[in-house]
Amino acid sequence: MRGTILSSVASLALMTTAAVAGGKVTVITSFPDSMTGPIEAAFEAAHPEFDLEILNKKTSAGVKYIQEIAGDNTADIFWASAPDAFEVLKGDQLLSKVTITSEGIPDRIGAYPLNDPEGYYFGFAGAGYGIMWNERYLKANDLAPAKEWMDLAGAEYHGHVGMSAPSRSGTTHLTVETLLQGEGWDQGWSQWKRIAGNFRTVTERSFGVPDGVNTGNFGLGIVIDFFGFSSKASGFPVDFAYPTVTALVPANVAVVADAPNEDGAVTFINYMLTPEGQSVLLDPAIMRLPINPATYADAPEGFPNPFEDSTIGASVKFDVEKSGARYNLVNSMFDVMITYRLDDLRAAVGALHEAEARYSKTGNEEAKALIDEAWALIDANPIDEAQSLDPEFAGIFTKKRRKATDEVGERQAEIEQRWDAFVVENYARATELANKAAAM
User: Fold this and answer.
1) Terminal Cα distance for the chain, rounded
2) At what angle do helices 410-438 and 342-362 cross, to 10 degrees?
3) N or C: less crowded end of the chain, CB within 10 Å?
4) Alpha-carbon distance 425 to 423, whole Å?
5) What φ, ψ does residue 323 adopt, rounded to 5°?
């Protein structure tokens, strides 16, 4: 009897210890419920001692949230795609250095290291950037799929393209920065403005783009790869392509400094890197690129495998330090030149498409000179790349806007007003020249 009582007491002690060792794990993430839900369910089934609490925030908002609660931290995990966001938190000493177990996982995906070399954050999936399209929409509008970035600048796509703003989405920021690095500063911005001149919309959230393509609100969208893959796997009439100039980088996860439940956070990351955790990435609602090569044996037919197809993301060696150094500056430039002046840019590009169509019939060389002058006005940049990488100048851009009327620092506002005046004048003059050329 006494042995039975002691055994019961021991069992109770073990249960109490397990409860203490488990508990709530608070996760700050930019990922949608369609992704976090299956992963949360799989993790809690494997580790019932833990309860994941998911707090969904945009990447930039998640970074700001962790910065604001520093010193009285209530978050355990930061979980997002953008590696430069993790660099920001690491630089602020807001991530914990931990040891993670990752058997069978290589050091790199494509040309990019999977993990922070100092152990502050870890890749759990691959992420590439490209174009998705709705096949029914394209057929109805007699359009072919666009598979390279500059395909989207074609006159036939005017009003058919959607994208989110990089200031509202960390993954979109990476897409913008990838083209700036892959094509060069001036050529990259030229391409973004020519593509944006064909935009139907700039969405509030990154997942507004796949939603718009899925429903046929617009025909083509600029997205992170898993949006295209998961939509296709869910039965939508869509497809996705990686342009030649794209990057392949890890989506990451990290333990927040002074995490209330560091053990739970480490357990979650370890689970994500197990064969079981990696296999959840192939759920039709998720469709992320696993970083364990063995997982691809269970991938659906046609699913890309970056460990076998070395062309994915091979042309851009993404520089995360460069991206992080000018993160807010690039977001401000995109918003000033594109998001807030989309109507002006769209009108100018549309007028140029009409002028070029007219020129193709007349061959009027005076008209061609006006068209070239107009495109040069649209392509013009208010600053060069050296300024974008000047720490003193880039440091002026300390705050992102949610909308054009949001207040920012006096110096940032002054520069943005100067940029705005620059593009307003250029777009208006480009429209004028295009209309003149079309009349010839």
Assistant:
1) 105
2) 20
3) N
4) 5
5) -60, -45
Q: How far apart are CA 418 and CA 24, in angstroms?
A: 49
- Tokens 């500063």 correspond to 185
Long-range contacts of 405-412 (CB under 8 A, 24+ apart): 412/332
Cα separation, 111 vs 76, in Å, equals 30
CA–CA separation, 99 and 2 (whole Å): 43
Q: What tens-digit pLDDT sequence spans the chain (440 residues)? A: 444 444 443 343 333 333 345 799 999 999 989 899 999 999 999 999 999 999 999 888 899 999 999 989 999 999 998 888 898 899 999 999 999 988 899 998 877 889 999 999 999 999 899 999 999 999 999 999 999 999 999 999 999 999 999 998 888 998 999 999 999 999 999 999 999 999 999 998 888 999 999 999 999 999 999 999 999 999 999 999 999 999 888 999 999 999 999 999 999 999 999 999 999 999 999 999 999 999 999 999 889 999 998 888 888 888 888 988 999 999 999 999 999 999 999 999 999 999 999 999 999 999 999 999 999 999 999 999 999 999 999 999 986 555 555 667 899 999 999 999 999 999 999 999 999 999 99
Q: Is residue 243 within 8 Å of residue 147, measured between CB atoms?
A: yes
Q: How many helices (H) and strands (E) does the chain have?
A: 18, 12
Type of residue found at 373: E
d(CA 295, CA 80) in angstroms, rounded, equals: 21
Query: Is residue 227 a contact partner of residue 207, using CB atoms and an 8 Å limit?
Result: yes
What are the residue ranges of helices labelled H in 237-390? 262-272, 275-280, 320-325, 327-334, 342-362, 365-379, 385-388
pTM here is 0.85
Q: What are phi and psi of 199, to 5 degrees?
A: -65, 140
Q: How far apart are CA 79 and CA 127, in angstroms?
A: 13
Listed in sequence order, the DSSP H helices in 47-198 are 59-68, 83-91, 135-140, 170-183, 185-196
Q: What is the DSSP letter of 106?
A: -
The token duo for 338 is 């594109």
Asked if residues 21 and 13 have their Cβ atoms less than 8 Å apart, the reply is no
Q: How far apart are CA 398 and CA 417, in angstroms?
A: 16
Contact partners, residue 7, CB within 8 Å, separation at least 6: none
